[in-house]
Design a protein that fits this description.
By secondary structure, this protein is α+β, with helices and mostly antiparallel strands. It has two domains: 1-39, no CATH class; 42-93, no CATH class. The chain is 47% helix and 19% strand. The protein has five helices and four strands; from the N terminus they run ααβββααβα. A four-stranded antiparallel beta sheet has the order 1-4-2-3. Helix 1 packs antiparallel against helix 2 (23-39). The chain is elongated and about 50 Å long. The two termini are 17 Å apart.
């Protein structure tokens, strides 16, 4: 997680706490963000579902890469990677009032 993302999450938590008057709400927001960050990654042994745009892959050499769904069947994720995540889970949606505003 980058410093910029950490600052944005903390600012959002502070805003939630201030607006609600309850420090537990800001803490729950941070806990939820941390849970989400750790749970979007799937083990390399798990096959991805079909009909999605692509994957972010954590390769065994500690690099990240993008795999288009057209190419997933040609890549042995269980051999070349330690895990993967759906791009839809990583990239923010374009909307107002999103996760971090």
């Amino acid at each position: 997680m980058t410093d910029q993302t950490k600052k944005a999450l903390l600012a959002k938590a502070e805003k939630i706490t201030k607006e609600s008057g309850d420090t537990m709400q800001g803490t729950m927001f941070l806990n939820g963000a941390d849970w989400y960050r750790h749970n979007i990654w799937h083990p390399a042994s798990e096959p991805p579902k079909p009909n999605i745009s692509g994957l972010m892959v954590r390769y065994k050499d500690h690099t990240l890469g993008f795999v288009n769904m057209d190419d997933v069947s040609q890549v042995r994720l269980d051999i070349v990677s330690t895990g993967w995540a759906y791009l839809e889970d990583i990239l923010p949606e374009e909307r107002t009032g999103g996760f971090i505003d």
